[in-house]
Structure formats: structure tokens, C-alpha cells
Structure to design on (697 residues):
């Protein structure tokens, strides 16, 4: 006989926990609050039964009694009963109660699903989330994972009191309950993301002919991507990390003392899929969605002139094939929630309190398959994030860098709220339904070729996004360290030689003088090689390297560039990254610079002449678009002489070629630092345009 949840009798609400550095609060904690309210009796019972981890004998109830910062999405008794009803209706359990489980393993697993998914643990330093601190975007993710190591997604509706967490409706009254160690939010259903992968989801849609994304799933199946989309975690890295085969990082001296780079615990794999809905395909092909075939889509692509240089044979799994190029352009090799598509931090006018876009901000990512750039843009005028949008921008020297207008054929594709309900909330991916065809057309290529492409170097490293490393709210001095490639190849596109201590500085929520706040920093005997993103079209490009030379421990490096990763050509003389606009800072003293930097005046003709002189020396001022330090400042990076751009390559480049950039120290001093912030591709049509000079932004 099933035991009614409402009739559960609670045992004592305290159990042993290894306190360590923690202590139990003497007043109301999350756990004591839940114990005092009968509506949570079933949830409290589970908190007493579920261990903190497989390595701990303490239960989660004891954890919620201790000091910390917990965000608890607490299901009431009705929510838990509803979840059991659902499991019974699916045949997972024999009856809608705890006695209905067929074995103890399944019972323990479901208990953990309910408990671990309901709690975000901020530890001792990161604050719990009240509603005001929820992600502002509809479909945005909480920065921290829950105890089940999953991202929770928030959705908003027209009714301001209607908020869901992974589809679970929050109670409009019983939320934002402040307790000594966090916040409690009552939810009317269990927060339980599926364990399926994106590959499993799309295969189910295709094989079972489910409506909504049937045609898109069919195309993904045809090009052979389903197996790739099954991956969600690098199990070899898991084993290496857990057994200590990945050595710890050295301590790094900084303004906050010596701090050791934190090794990532995991190497997750993720995907973002921009999928045309079945309605789009029915409109374009003129058939019912379930009658549309792969040949229909291929014929449509050919008749509309897409991918004219691609092969049109039946080898859809080849990157040279027209269908393969079309489908893979819809995928990014990283999982990006709506608030991570375009990152905002210190661009002009932006405030993390208001969280409203201001000037034009963008990201350039490389798609899967045949490598092509996908541009994402958001501004005060764009109405949200758009794919491949090319507006007219007020980019004069005295301009605002806001959009002036945007032609209809350059407006791009508006990115909607992602599909995250039910089975769509997969563990390794996210799907955005788009209402028009997405393709790398000749027009997209040509428009990309007409603009300067600036990208934070970390945006070209999917592992940084998939593993919550890039631009997250961590405490001051948070550094991540990564193993040498010989120890473990953590990055697909970065080769880290032995004795190159590779750090990531997370400057988010700090005042570092970097584009988007963060930077890469390497100590030791530097030798690092990057695989670069593709250029959009054949032509002559400059590659610029942004330098912030404020530190006295900067070093000197030789750049190498080319197509053969193992035999790259040196580019010019070694680059002294201690050289700023006005000074050359070394550990033995500060010396004048011969760069030619001068502060801007009210005479823009004179300012332009200064810019030309600096370019002749291989230098450019910093970009006008972002603040010189944290956000909200009136001084932009262009006005700071320690921030300069160095022109390191000016060479012909081809869209179908892969290029590499190597940095190697020329100083026999392993205490020197190599600093890296962002790179720029600038086509000759932009930097050498006599009619429209390149802007200062």
C-alpha cells in the first residue's frame, strides 16, 4: 500500500555532518524552516535520506543546516506526488508512491534527482539567489550548477508573478524566503532535467516522427551528426583528474599574492543548435513536414543558390557536401544559454545592475563541420540577440556606436527563447527555434568581409564556455590553470608546451583593464600555439594583438604564423609586450616609449595623424568601445596609454585554410608573464579604405 506524502511523520531534523570549517547557525536555516512547514514534509524526508555526495555519510538536510549560501527550489508535497504520478504513468514505477519502486537502486536514484536538482550551493563566497538576482533573460541560466551538476533555466511570462525553473512554476507568495544561509523558493513541480543528450533527443524526434523539428532532425541524421551529439563529458579527463594524473598548477604571483590556478574538475562537451521549425520547412518546400525528404531539401538549396561551390553528391557526411555545410552551420561546439550568446561587461554605458544592452556588442563563433564564422550581435536597438546582423552604426570619432538603422536584408535572424521544457532540457545542448532559414550565404560572407572582426581569444576556446570558466561571477583573484598538452590535451585548439604555465584570469565583476574583463596569462618558458578562427573570405588581413602593458613582469615573445602547425614562420622581430604607448616597463626600471602615442585632442584631423604615425610603427590605440577598467567608467581604453594594439601579421589569408598562431618567449626568465586579451582580423578593405577610414571603436 502506498504511503500518502501528507501523512509522512518526520524524525528529528538534525543528523551528523562533518562540519570542518563550517558551523551550524543558531537561528533559522533553510533546513529548520522547511522542517517547520508541513507542506514540505515529503521534501524534508528526502533531505534526510539523500547523502551530500557518494563520498559523504552526511545527508543534505544537515548540509542545509550549516553555514553557506544555498538557493533551494523546494517542491511541496503535491509537487512530489505529481512527480510520482508521472513516473507511474510512464511505467517507470509500479505505483505512484515510494513503495512502487522495483529496486533500491532506482529508488535512491529518483531521490537524488529530486534533491540534487533542487539546490544550488554557492559555498562560503558566492551569494544565494533571490528573485532580483535571477538571470534577466527569458531562457537564461543560473551561473552556478545545481548539486546534480546541471544548469537551471529561468523563464518569465506576461504575468510578473509567473516564473518557472526548468518548467517548475514558482509559488507567487512562497518565494524569496530569506533564511540565514540562503533563499527558499517553493515550486509546484519537481525540478528534474532529463538525462538525455541532444543526440538522443533528435534521434527520437526523427525515428518517432515527432512534430516541431522533424525535418531538422532528419537532416542532422542524414549528415551523421547524431553520434557526435551524444557526447557530454570527457570520461578520460574525469579519470585523470580524480586519480591525480593531472598535476596541480604552480602558484602565480599577483596583486593579491600567490594563488594557484584551479584545475577544472571536468571537461564537459556541449552544443548549441539553431533549428528551423517544421513550419518554416513546410512554407519553403510546399509539402507536409512528414512528406519532406532529404532530396527535397538538397534540391531547394541548389535552386536557391546556397553553397554554390559545395559538392552535390550523396555523400552527406563529407564536409565538402552541400547538405553537410548547410546543417553544420546551425551548430556551435559549445552550449550557450540565451544570456551567454553575447556577453556584456565593460562596454560603454553598460551596467550589470540594469543589465540593458547599450552600444553594439558582438561575438564571433566558429561553427561545426566546415569552419565558418557565425556573428551574434546585441544592442539597445536590435531587440535582442541576432544572428548575422549588419546594421549601420554611428561609429564616427564623436559618435555613439549605437545603431542608426539596419536594412531589412541585413537584419539577421532574431534568436528566440530556447526550447527547454520537458525532454528538450537535455544535458549537453540547447535548441533555439528559428523562424527563417539560416545559412552561410554569399551575402553573409561579403558582409563579414567588410568589417573588423574582434574576438576575445577565450571565445575561440569552446571548453571555456562548456565548463563555466569564461566570465562567471567568482571571487577576486580567481584563476584557472590548465595542464600541459603532454599531460592532458584539455583544449582542442590550443597546444600548451611543457613548462608553459597557462592561466585564465576571470576578471568578471572586477576592474581589470581588459576587454570583457578577463585575460589569459602564461608564465614559465612560454610556448603556446592557437588554432585561429577562419577568415570569412580570401584577401589580405591584419591580425592585431591587444596588449595591456601595465604589469612590470611582462615578457618578450616571438610570433609565428602559418598553415603548418609544426613549421610556422616567424613574423617580424620579437614583440616586447612591456612596451606601452608612453613607457617601457621592466623590473629594472621604466623607460620612454617610441610608439608615438598622444592623448586625443579636440582636433580630429590631428588625432587621425597620430593614429597614422602609430600604425607606421606597428601600433594602434586601444578600442573606444570598452571602459578602462570596470564598467560604468567615463574613460575608455583608447584613452589609456598602457592599452595598445599591436599589428603582428599582414598577410594574404584564404577562407578555406586553417591558420595557427604561436607565441614563444625569447627571454630566458620563467618569471615573465605573457598576456593575452583579444585578437582582431581586419581586411585590407577596412584598414586601407581611403573613403571610409577604419573607426576608432
Amino acid at each position: 500500500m502506498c504511503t500518502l506524502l501528507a501523512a509522512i511523520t518526520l524524525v528529528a531534523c538534525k543528523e551528523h555532518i562533518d562540519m570542518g570549517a563550517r558551523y551550524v547557525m543558531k537561528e533559522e536555516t533553510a533546513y529548520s524552516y522547511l522542517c517547520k512547514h508541513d507542506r514540505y514534509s515529503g521534501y524534508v524526508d528526502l533531505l534526510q535520506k539523500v547523502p551530500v555526495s557518494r563520498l559523504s555519510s552526511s545527508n543534505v538536510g544537515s548540509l542545509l543546516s550549516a553555514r553557506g549560501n544555498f538557493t533551494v527550489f523546494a517542491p511541496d508535497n503535491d509537487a512530489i506526488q505529481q512527480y510520482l504520478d508521472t513516473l507511474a504513468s510512464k511505467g517507470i514505477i509500479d505505483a505512484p508512491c515510494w513503495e512502487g519502486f522495483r529496486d533500491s537502486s532506482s529508488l535512491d536514484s529518483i531521490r537524488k534527482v529530486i534533491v540534487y536538482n533542487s539546490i544550488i550551493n554557492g559555498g562560503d563566497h558566492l551569494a544565494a539567489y533571490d528573485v532580483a538576482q535571477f538571470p534577466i533573460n527569458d531562457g537564461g541560466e543560473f551561473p552556478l550548477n545545481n548539486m546534480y551538476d546541471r544548469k537551471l533555466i529561468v523563464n518569465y511570462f506576461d504575468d510578473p508573478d509567473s516564473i518557472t525553473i526548468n518548467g517548475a512554476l514558482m509559488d507567487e507568495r512562497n518565494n524569496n524566503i530569506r533564511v540565514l544561509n540562503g533563499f527558499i523558493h517553493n515550486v509546484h513541480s519537481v525540478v528534474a532535467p532529463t538525462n538525455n543528450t541532444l543526440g538522443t533527443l533528435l534521434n527520437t524526434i526523427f525515428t518517432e516522427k515527432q512534430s516541431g523539428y522533424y525535418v531538422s532532425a532528419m537532416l542532422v541524421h542524414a549528415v551523421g551528426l547524431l553520434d557526435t551529439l551524444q557526447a557530454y563529458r570527457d570520461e578520460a579527463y574525469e579519470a585523470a583528474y580524480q586519480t591525480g594524473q593531472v598535476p596541480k598548477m604552480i602558484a602565480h604571483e599577483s596583486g593579491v599574492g600567490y594563488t594557484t590556478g584551479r584545475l577544472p574538475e571536468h571537461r564537459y562537451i556541449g552544443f548549441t543548435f539553431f533549428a528551423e521549425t517544421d513550419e518554416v520547412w513546410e512554407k519553403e518546400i510546399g509539402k507536409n513536414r512528414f512528406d519532406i525528404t532529404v532530396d527535397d531539401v538538397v534540391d531547394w538549396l541548389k535552386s536557391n543558390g546556397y553553397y554554390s561551390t559545395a559538392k552535390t553528391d550523396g555523400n552527406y557526411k563529407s564536409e565538402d557536401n552541400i547538405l553537410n555545410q548547410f546543417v553544420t552551420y546551425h551548430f556551435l561546439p559549445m552550449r550557450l544559454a540565451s544570456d551567454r550568446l553575447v556577453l556584456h561587461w565593460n562596454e560603454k554605458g553598460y551596467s550589470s545592475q540594469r543589465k540593458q544592452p547599450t552600444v553594439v556588442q558582438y561575438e564571433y563563433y566558429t561553427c561545426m563541420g566546415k569552419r565558418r564564422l557565425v556573428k551574434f550581435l546585441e544592442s539597445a536597438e536590435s531587440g535582442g540577440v541576432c544572428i548575422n546582423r549588419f546594421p549601420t552604426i554611428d561609429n564616427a570619432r564623436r559618435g555613439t556606436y549605437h545603431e542608426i538603422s539596419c536594412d531589412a536584408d541585413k537584419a539577421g535572424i532574431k534568436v528566440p527563447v530556447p526550447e527547454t521544457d520537458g525532454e528538450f532540457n537535455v544535458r549537453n545542448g540547447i535548441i533555439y527555434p528559428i523562424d527563417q532559414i539560416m545559412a552561410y550565404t554569399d551575402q553573409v560572407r561579403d558582409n563579414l568581409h567588410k568589417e573588423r572582426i574582434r574576438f576575445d581569444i577565450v571565445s575561440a576556446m569552446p571548453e571555456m564556455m562548456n565548463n563555466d570558466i569564461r566570465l562567471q561571477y567568482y571571487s577576486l583573484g580567481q584563476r584557472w590553470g590548465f595542464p600541459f598538452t603532454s599531460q592532458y590535451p584539455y583544449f582542442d585548439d590550443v597546444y600548451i608546451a611543457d613548462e608553459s604555465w597557462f592561466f585564465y584570469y576571470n576578471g568578471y565583476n572586477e576592474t581589470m583593464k581588459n576587454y570583457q574583463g578577463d585575460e589569459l596569462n602564461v608564465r614559465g618558458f612560454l610556448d603556446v600555439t592557437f588554432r585561429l578562427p577562419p577568415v570569412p573570405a580570401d584577401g589580405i588581413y591584419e591580425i592585431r594583438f591587444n596588449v595591456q602593458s601595465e604589469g612590470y613582469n611582462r615578457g618578450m615573445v616571438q610570433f609565428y604564423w602559418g598553415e603548418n602547425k609544426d613549421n610556422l614562420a616567424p613574423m617580424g622581430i620579437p614583440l616586447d609586450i612591456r612596451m606601452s604607448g608612453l613607457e617601457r616597463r621592466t623590473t629594472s626600471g621604466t623607460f620612454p616609449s617610441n610608439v608615438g602615442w598622444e592623448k586625443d585632442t579636440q582636433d580630429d584631423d590631428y588625432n587621425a595623424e597620430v593614429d597614422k604615425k602609430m600604425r607606421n610603427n606597428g601600433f594602434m590605440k586601444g578600442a573606444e568601445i570598452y571602459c578602462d577598467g570596470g564598467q560604468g567608467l567615463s574613460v575608455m581604453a583608447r584613452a589609456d596609454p598602457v592599452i595598445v594594439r599591436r599589428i603582428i601579421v599582414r598577410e594574404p589569408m584564404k577562407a578555406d585554410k586553417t591558420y595557427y598562431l604561436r607565441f614563444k618567449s625569447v627571454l630566458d626568465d620563467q618569471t615573465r608573464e605573457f598576456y593575452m586579451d583579444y585578437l582582431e582580423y581586419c581586411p585590407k578593405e577596412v584598414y586601407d579604405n581611403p573613403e571610409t577610414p577604419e573607426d576608432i571603436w
Remarks:
- Residues 3-26, 254-258 have pLDDT under 50 and may be disordered.
